[in-house]
């Protein structure tokens, strides 16, 4: 085919002449050269316009894929980002396994990742390091670095657990990798996982016994852990104390012969503290308790069915006489209650009753008795922790 | 006649021999070490010792085990230990350290025992220590191995490694290496002070710490926050919490709000070591003041109520005595500088003996007499 083409050219351009002498050839060359020169001259002297100027060379350089950092926008996948064909070509060259050894590819991914890291694109950095590790190249040091770098990126993302896993791998590959150990200590500290901090500090101090930072970190972890343990012990003790006190209270009530009714039907015979919580809003917060002399103090409710009113005596020691409290409420010095328009409620006029267990009868109460005596009455039931 | 048999034994122990022959020979050697005559016979022959040493890594596990057993018995005798250390062709300490470092070596516990035996006699301890320090692993490496539970994958617990290390604490150089501020050795041991799984390890570690407390120069470091030894010495002596909130808050964190099931150290020997260590830390005024600030008197008070061992009670009272008095009363900055005249010293010893026998205590009058005399 080349022969045919040659014949064609000779036929068309050279008039079919096939036998040339040296001089004739030289002459032909000279002619061709002249033609070329005059053609170029004819083109006119125009300046090359596409080049970079003094002003715009920096921008141009930043945009040109060969010089600019190859940065994808956050979140964009390779398909979406508008890629300069030149940069895509470069990328393919760098990462193409056909053109590179696994070590080179891994190294390139590592550099890529480091670049992303510098620009704080940590997720992309992680992706790049992961790609580098996928190459499973045989350079242990490089793989260790990839793990360590990925750990650093994870750290910045707040994925401390993943970071520690990467540090572990890094140290597996490179047993004297102090940087990875220190990173693991920092991550464990952020997680407040003190036992892990000890573990990593111990490993680090084996590599470098003089390392002051590790010693300090270990001490901090020790202090924190001690504090945690001590607080746990204190809490346990306080809870125990509370439980014993509650139990004592319940026992005292049981033993005093006071009967508790429950607003909710329950099958169990044991009383819990919630049974004693007063339901009445005014009595909230003043649950039955022991006072200094060791006697029970109850919140007592007085009901006035005539006027549909109630009163609450928040603290009524058992040993007090009912009449004393009535004296306070209805006595001569006390102002009459707002609903007692006719001032009928006077101490000597008052009849005090309680409802018996089955709510069938009203039982008369002698006001000269103490609360304790009234509560002990077998017909009496305390409801909602509030004798009424 | 006997020499021929022994020579034959050496040949049978050759490492490249037949498996069953080696095994039988090794077993014989081990059995020989069980008797005093056999032991001294083997000890006298460096070639037998070397041959046994070469079998400790034999592929046949019973052979290697017998080899180690033989070495344990040999090293337990001082003459045997000398003989082993004197071997020129092989460095026994280096070999044992390799066994310990090897996570897969099944007889690592024997190796620890052998090293402990070798370092027990005082005049040999320094030699072993020097060899370890010159070697690659060093004290620091051994402590690191000791501090990892389940280091050995074949079931060796390495508790005797603690005994070996505690032998080093008998040497001043050993103590100083352990307490080197630039290194990180003593701190690793502290967490085993309440190690319940092994009394041996616990005792050895506490003995080590106890010995270290005799280095007065290190007291500030020991009682400072890098090591914070005082609460750790007290924790085994402390029982369940009996203090109110204010008293609790005055104690170091480790000793606050102890649970109801807190047990004190059951072994009186160990308690004695703890109390003696605390005594040592009281030698300087600064030390006493640290202890007063940490309010350890409370712990000692409760301990005194519980303690039954006479010796421990005596130590407790001595300690409390020092802490309760003011510095003016004590009058001396550094108690180790006080020279006790020999007759007074004798009287003190007699008094201690009397206390231990009968339990009566008239220490105060005796102390005052001594203070008078020294003025």
TrEMBL record, chain A:
Keywords of this protein's UniProt record, alphabetized? Coiled coil, Repeat, TPR repeat
Q: Which Pfam families match?
A: TPR_1 (PF00515), Wheel (PF18972)
One example of a Gene Ontology biological process annotation:
protein folding
Q: Where are the transmembrane segments?
A: none
Annotated Cns1/TTC4 wheel domain ranges read 293-381
**Matching InterPro entries, A to Z?**
Csn1/TTC4_wheel, TPR-like_helical_dom_sf, TPR_rpt
Q: Where is it found, in Gene Ontology cellular component terms?
A: cytosol; nucleus
What sections of the sequence does the record tag as coiled-coil? 211-248
GO MF, one term, reads: Hsp90 protein binding
Give the record's family classification.
Belongs to the TTC4 family.
**What is this protein called in UniProt?**
Cns1/TTC4 wheel domain-containing protein
Please tell me the species this chain comes from: Cherax quadricarinatus (Australian red claw crayfish)
From TrEMBL, chain B:
- Residue ranges of the Protein HGH1 C-terminal domain? 277-330
Spell out the InterPro entries in the cross-references. ARM-like (IPR011989), ARM-type_fold (IPR016024), Hgh1 (IPR039717), Protein_HGH1_C (IPR007206), Protein_HGH1_N (IPR007205)
The Protein HGH1 N-terminal domain sits at 100-272
Q: Which family does it belong to?
A: Belongs to the HGH1 family.
Q: This protein is called what?
A: Protein HGH1 homolog
Q: Which lineage ranks, top first, belong to the organism behind this chain?
A: Eukaryota, Metazoa, Ecdysozoa, Arthropoda, Crustacea
